[in-house]
Structures are given as structure tokens and as C-alpha cells.
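sry for the spam today, last one i promise. C-alpha cells for design, 315 residues
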């Protein structure tokens, strides 16, 4: 670990908490479970039964699009994000994690279907890093656009959560193991599809700058009062932001550094690479480092995906 990055992790504000919410734009279905999800540590999880083996799946009735919006929307102002407005694949497989803590506080993150009933997100989206308390309820709302899913009966809930850290370890371990795989109570990936993943060599990612995309339900995006976004009336955090042309800029041991636009709520968002014209998650966004004095962003952090290969038994 370089001295500079270690100093940033310990002296700067590492933002990992998802944006809290007091209201919900869409009510949850009536079939929500009465029991809290079961939490399982990585060492006790065994192997996932993944017939996909990390490959993407597009339902036959879905169109595929590399752009999550229609036409050629221009970038408004200096923000490089565009709203994710498409219900086509693979955007259909990315959604909003809606959680409730043990003390009844609501929060949200981003998650992505990687199998018919599995969602990939961050550990800090299911476990409070400060209190180490497990979330009481975790819902996945697929392909939320302006506060709405295509069918509210497809809102699914966590039954089982496999996590990499409960944030009782050292700073570096907590950072590199900040991942969770959530098993849902419905196989909604059959309907919405799911992304593949590839644990690419870090050198390959670094040597392909501006080739990746990022999607996240950031708590500061979109701003309905901004010109061009007035129709997104559900407010910030209820339509995902999309950025293309971002990069993995460096790796410091197992910590990936990237330049995609992120803020609270985009935690757990996928960094996507298109390989042979198919979408794969290549890294998992989980934090941003800000200057504690100026609140300006310094660098963003991501988790590499070697743990998924281990869980799937492919290495």
C-alpha cells in the first residue's frame, strides 16, 4: 500500500455511506417478507450455484442498447452524467437497493443482477460500517426510472446476504472486501436479464482508458430544477446517472482507483466494460475520497471482482 493512498484513507473523508431517504417514490408490494434476511460471512458461504458462470443473459423479448437514453442527449453543464431512461437490456438489470436499518432509518444504494435471483452491491449497503448492525430489510427495485419500476410486483427482497466484511477489520481489509451478494426472493433476472462479470487483469483495465461506463443512483442526481431535467420529478436518487468514457486509473495492491462520477447512493454501482458486444461488470464502485477541508473529490475507489470467481468456483 503506497504511503500516499494510506494517508488519504486515514486522513481524508472516505465516503461510503449511501444517501438516506425519508420518503419513497413507489410503495412496496404486499408480498414483502416478515423476517430479516440471513447474513453469511464469506468463509461460511460455500460456493454459489451459478449456471451463468459469469456470463450475461439478455431475455429474448428485450432489445439491447449501449446507450441508456434515446437519441443523442447533450451533456448539460459540466456534469458528465446522463439520466438512465432506458428499459432495454442491460439497463433493465441495474436497480436501486432500498434498505432499512435496525433503527428504522431508510437509505439507498445501487445493485446489479448477476443471476436470476442474485444482486451484486457493496457490503456497506447491507451492514452499517459505523455500528456494524445488519440491515433489517433490503429491497431491490429493478430499473427504477423517475421513481417507478416497470412492474411493482417485480420488486424483490433479500432472503440471504453473503458479505465480504462487517467493517470490524482494518481499513484496508474493509475497503478491499466491501462487497455483498444478495439472494432475492424472486428470480426476476429471468425477466430483466443480468450482467456478466469478468475479473480482468488490472493492467488490461488501466491500459484501456475511457473505455468503461458507470451507472449509479447518486443521491445528488438528477436535479429536477436543472434545465432539461424538469420531467424527472421524483427527485434525486430516483433516476440513475450514467457516465461513459471513464477509466480505471491505478491499482494499489487490491484497491482500484477510478475516475467515474460518484457520490452517496451510487455505492454498489457497476463499472461496465463491453466485451465482444456484451456487457460485463469489471469492477464494483464503493467509495470516494474527499478533502475534509474543501469537500472536493480526490479519487474514487472500487473493488476488484476476484471474490466472484471464488464464490462461483471458477478459480
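last one done:
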Amino acid at each position: 500500500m503506497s504511503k500516499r493512498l494510506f494517508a488519504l484513507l486515514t486522513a481524508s473523508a472516505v465516503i461510503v455511506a449511501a444517501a438516506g431517504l425519508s420518503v419513497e417514490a413507489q410503495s412496496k408490494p404486499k408480498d414483502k417478507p416478515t423476517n430479516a434476511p440471513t447474513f453469511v460471512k464469506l468463509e461460511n458461504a460455500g460456493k454459489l450455484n451459478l449456471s451463468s458462470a459469469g456470463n450475461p443473459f439478455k431475455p429474448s423479448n428485450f432489445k439491447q442498447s449501449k446507450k441508456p437514453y434515446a437519441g443523442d442527449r447533450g451533456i448539460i453543464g459540466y456534469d458528465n452524467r446522463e439520466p438512465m431512461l432506458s428499459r432495454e437490456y442491460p439497463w433493465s438489470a441495474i436497480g436501486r437497493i432500498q434498505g432499512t436499518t435496525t433503527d428504522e432509518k431508510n437509505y439507498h444504494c445501487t445493485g446489479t443482477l448477476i443471476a436470476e435471483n442474485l444482486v451484486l452491491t457493496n457490503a456497506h449497503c447491507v451492514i452499517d460500517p459505523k455500528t456494524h448492525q445488519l440491515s433489517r430489510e433490503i429491497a431491490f427495485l429493478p430499473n427504477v426510472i423517475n421513481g417507478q419500476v416497470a412492474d411493482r410486483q417485480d420488486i424483490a427482497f433479500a432472503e440471504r446476504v453473503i458479505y465480504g466484511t462487517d467493517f470490524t477489520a482494518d481499513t484496508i481489509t474493509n475497503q478491499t472486501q466491501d462487497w455483498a451478494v444478495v439472494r432475492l426472493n424472486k428470480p426476476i433476472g429471468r425477466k430483466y436479464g443480468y450482467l456478466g462479470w469478468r475479473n480482468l487483469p488490472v493492467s488490461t483495465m488501466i491500459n484501456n482508458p475511457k473505455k468503461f461506463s458507470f451507472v449509479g443512483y447518486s443521491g445528488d442526481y438528477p436535479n429536477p430544477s436543472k434545465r432539461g431535467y424538469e420531467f424527472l420529478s421524483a427527485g434525486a436518487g430516483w433516476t440513475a446517472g450514467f457516465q461513459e468514457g471513464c477509466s480505471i486509473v491505478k491499482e494499489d495492491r487490491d484497491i482500484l482507483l477510478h475516475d467515474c462520477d460518484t457520490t452517496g447512493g451510487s455505492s454498489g454501482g457497476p463499472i461496465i466494460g463491453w466485451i465482444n458486444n456484451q456487457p460485463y461488470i469489471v469492477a464494483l464502485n464503493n467509495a470516494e475520497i474527499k478533502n475534509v477541508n474543501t469537500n472536493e473529490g480526490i479519487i474514487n475507489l472500487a473493488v476488484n471482482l476476484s471474490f466472484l470467481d471464488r464464490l462461483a468456483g471458477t478459480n
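Confidence is low (pLDDT under 50) at residues 17-23. ok im logging off now
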